[in-house]
Every structure is written in structure tokens, then in C-alpha cells.
Design goal:
single chain, 485 residues, four-stranded antiparallel sheet, alpha+beta, two-stranded parallel ribbon, Outer membrane efflux proteins (OEP)
């Protein structure tokens, strides 16, 4: 038996170490059983938290009083959807640059180093060595393609414009989300103020009833009714405070802040609406079809599909391409029993390539059919979007007109309920009304206050909804478009 050399022994030891020693497994594995959830490693959780770390943490101050335009601007900057749409638009801008580059010739520097060794036979073999070095400049240019490249460029231009419009549409959606969340906070704040006033009135009535009970002018049931009215008002105030906290958390989340962070906002009296309204519903719908970025993007998809059809049709025609190169040839030669020889000379070459595909198994025909189908689909999507937009704008327009009338009615209701409550309280002081009449008047006044507050917010929400449906919201942020390189 032959003995192992030291090298063989070393290789054997290393092999045993690799294949036998239990090494930790860092790759992802499938769960071991179907009956238990997968045990996530702590390192994976840590990496996930680091990847999704909020880069805007603690960027907003709780001392500053933010206005609605400021919040809109912050939401546009911080929302990842706007960056995603921006990056997609940049990708299409690069694709447009690639398509435009095909209109220009291709110029390349080429250097070829070659070594040939062969044998010559003259009754005896003689070895011959030849070293070649050939630097050159190579030029290639497509002279004629019957519009194929131009069709690709037009397609990418339309796609880039559609991406820019989608970018604006993302801003429109982000703005509307912020406006809606802001008005939810405003509604909760206004309802809380109304509930605080209602609670104060209920406690005033309760104090008055307790005072009259001590004087023998009221009964124990009157006192209990007044206490129940105060407790109900306090219960409603606590519920509304919870609604405000939730609304503020939603607002902070849209700004990529912690929901627990309470931002200081301007009051409802300082909030303004959108002064953009057109005279009638027809003009409003026409405005939406002119400015809605998502609708304009669908129109650009139709243009892109038309350009794609043009490019696919051009593939049926021949192409003419010219190419040329110019350089120098330097050669070093040596033959057995002979000295080295050297020589150099300028060399050039050009050619015209006429290429016409006569048969490709139906590929061009099917590509053209695909392009036409995409065009018809884009037309259908555009028509469907037009019908939806017309209804959406009409619905938003009617909601705004309804909100205007409801606000006027709520003002009259609040005024009448306030006078009724004052009259009932005064009559109760003179013993002409009982406490049930006062609590009912107080209840009606609370309902009127909430109705008025909701009507004020509803008209702002309706204006924002109409601005959203007509595409006018994007004029607030005015985000820049991505230009081709």
C-alpha cells in the first residue's frame, strides 16, 4: 500500500473539515413544519427595521402652527409614492434617450492583435511566425429604415409624457389625501369645541336646577334629568376627543411621522377653500377633461400605441446600412533561418448592407397585431375613463351645490335653536317651563351646533373633492416634469 504524501494528507483534512463540520446556515430556508409559523431570526428583523428606517423622524416641530399649504408641500416631499413615480419617469426619459441615439452613427475604436504560426513545406517544413497589429476607427450608420427608429422615438416620447402626467396624478392623490385628513382634524376640533360649549351649558342648567331644588322650586327628578344631560354631554365630548386623536394620527402618518405626534394646526376660521369654481357643471366637466393628469396620460398611451404600430409596419420594409473603417496595419514576420521583417500600411474598408427580411415565420405580422390590439385597448380605456370622470365631476359638483344649501340651512337652524334654548332657560327661571323642556332645547342646540360645524367642513370637503376630480389640485404643488436627456 502506497503512503500518502503530505500534500494529499492536507487536502484530506480540509475536505473532512468542510463536509463534516457543522457550519451555520445563513441562507433563507423553508419552514420546518406546516403546523407552526416560521421563526423569524432577530437579525432579519433588525435588517428590515434598518432598511425601512424613517429618514424624516423628528423633522416636524410640535411648536410651529402649520397651515394647509405647508402640510401639502411636506406630504409631497415625504411620500414615497411621489419618489416612485419620479423614478419611473426618469427611467422612461432614459429609454427615450436610448431610442434617440439610434438616429446617430456608431463610432468605435478597434485594435486587433493577432499572432499566426504556420509551417511552409519546401521538401522540408519551415516554421513561420507572423505578428499583426491593426488599430482602426470603425463607423456604422443606418441610412434608411422607413420610419422604424422614428416610430420608436415617438413611442418613447408619448410614454415619457404619460409618465410625467402619472407623476402629477400621484401628486394630485397625495394632495387630496392630505386635504381630506386635514379637514377630518378640523371637523373633530370644531365638534370638540361645540361639545365643550354643550357641556358647559348642561352644567349651567344642572347648577341652576340644584339651586332651585335647595329653594324648594324644583324636584329630585328634575335634578336627575339635569345630571343625566351633563353626563351625556361629557360622554359625547370624550368620544369626540378620541375621534380627534385618530384624525391627528392619520394626518401625522401621511407626513411619515409617528401617529402619536400632535401637530399644531391653524383654526377652522383661518382655513380657506379653493377659489377655482367654474360657472356650471358642463364647464366643470370640460375643465376636468382638459386638466385631469390621469386622463391625459391615457391619451398619451394612445399616441404611444399609434407610434408602435408605425414602427412595426416599418419592419416590413428593407434597411440600408453603411459601415466603414480606417486604420493602419503593422506586421512583424519571421521565418526559420531568416531574419525578422517589418512592414506597415494604411488600410480602409467600406460597405453598404441592404437587408430585407422576406420570411420570419409570422413574427412581424403578430407583432403588428399586438400593437393594434394595444391601440384598441388604449382607446377603450380612454373612453371608459372619460365616462367615469364625467360622472365623478357631476357627483362632486352636485355635492358642492348641496353643501352650499345645507350651510345656509344650518345657519338658520343654529340661530333658531340658540333662541329656543335661551327662551326655555329664561322661562324655566320664572317657573313657566320644566327642566325637560330645557334639556330638550339644550339637546336640539347641541345637534344644531354639530350640524353647523359639519356643514362648514362639508363645503370645504366638497370644494376639495371637486378640485380633485377636475385635476385642479395639482396646480397647488406644481411639481416639475422630468425632461428627456
Amino acid at each position: 500500500m502506497s503512503r500518502l504524501t503530505p500534500l494529499h494528507r492536507f487536502c484530506l483534512i480540509v475536505s473532512c473539515f468542510i463536509f463534516v463540520w457543522p457550519l451555520p446556515v445563513y441562507a433563507q430556508q423553508a419552514p420546518k413544519t406546516p403546523g407552526k409559523p416560521w421563526d423569524i431570526e432577530a437579525s432579519i428583523l433588525y435588517q428590515s427595521q434598518e432598511t425601512h428606517k424613517n429618514e424624516w423622524a423628528d423633522a416636524l416641530s410640535t411648536d410651529k402652527r402649520y397651515t394647509l399649504p405647508e402640510l401639502i408641500s411636506l406630504a409631497e416631499e415625504r411620500n414615497p409614492k411621489t419618489r416612485l413615480a419620479w423614478e419611473k419617469a426618469k427611467q422612461l426619459a432614459a429609454k427615450l434617450g436610448i431610442a434617440q441615439s439610434e438616429l446617430f452613427p456608431t463610432l468605435a475604436a478597434v485594435a486587433i492583435l493577432e499572432n499566426n504560426s504556420s509551417a511552409l513545406f519546401f521538401e522540408t517544413f519551415y516554421t513561420q511566425n507572423l505578428f499583426l497589429f491593426r488599430p482602426a476607427i470603425s463607423l456604422s450608420y443606418t441610412v434608411l429604415d422607413f420610419g422604424e427608429r422614428r416610430g420608436k422615438i415617438d413611442e418613447q416620447k408619448a410614454s415619457l409624457l404619460a409618465a410625467n402626467l402619472n407623476f402629477n396624478d400621484v401628486h394630485r392623490q397625495v394632495i387630496y389625501s392630505m386635504v381630506s385628513a386635514y379637514y377630518k382634524v378640523m371637523l373633530a376640533m370644531s365638534r370638540k369645541e361645540a361639545a365643550e360649549v354643550t357641556l358647559a351649558n348642561a352644567r349651567t342648567v344642572q347648577d341652576s336646577v340644584e339651586e332651585r331644588l335647595e329653594q324648594g322650586l324644583a324636584t329630585l327628578p328634575d335634578k336627575l334629568d339635569a345630571q343625566a344631560a351633563s353626563a351625556k354631554a361629557e360622554y359625547e365630548l370624550v368620544a369626540i376627543q378620541g375621534e380627534e386623536d385618530i384624525a391627528r394620527g392619520e394626518l401625522a402618518s401621511l407626513l411619515r411621522e409617528s401617529p402619536q405626534k400632535k401637530l399644531s394646526l391653524e383654526s377652522l376660521n383661518q382655513t380657506t377653500g379653493f377659489n377655482f369654481l367654474t360657472p356650471d357643471a358642463t364647464a366643470t366637466i370640460e375643465e376636468a377633461l382638459r386638466f385631469r393628469p390621469d386622463f391625459l396620460a391615457k391619451i398619451q398611451r394612445i399616441s404611444a400605441a399609434q407610434a408602435d404600430i408605425k414602427s412595426k409596419r416599418a419592419a416590413y420594409f428593407p434597411k440600408l446600412t453603411i459601415s466603414a473603417n480606417y486604420g493602419r496595419l503593422a506586421a512583424y514576420a519571421n521565418q526559420e533561418h531568416s531574419p525578422y521583417a517589418f512592414g506597415q500600411i494604411p488600410v480602409y474598408q467600406w460597405q453598404a448592407n441592404f437587408n430585407w427580411v422576406l420570411f420570419d415565420g409570422g413574427r412581424r405580422r403578430n407583432e403588428l397585431r399586438l400593437a393594434k390590439a394595444r391601440y384598441e385597448a388604449a382607446l377603450s380605456e380612454q373612453q371608459e375613463a372619460k365616462d367615469q370622470i364625467e360622472f365623478q365631476v357631476w357627483q362632486a359638483y352636485v355635492n358642492l351645490e348641496t353643501a352650499k344649501k345645507q350651510l345656509a340651512a344650518s345657519e338658520r337652524l343654529l340661530l333658531a335653536s340658540q333662541k329656543s334654548y335661551e327662551a326655555a332657560t329664561e322661562s324655566y327661571q320664572y317657573g313657566l317651563r320644566n327642566v325637560i323642556d330645557v334639556t330638550n332645547a339644550q339637546k336640539n342646540l347641541a345637534i344644531a351646533r354639530n350640524t353647523f360645524v359639519e356643514a362648514r367642513i362639508n363645503i370645504l370637503v366638497a370644494m376639495a373633492e371637486l378640485a380633485f376630480q377636475t385635476g385642479d389640485l395639482v396646480h397647488i404643488g406644481n411639481p416639475p416634469l422630468v425632461n428627456p436627456p
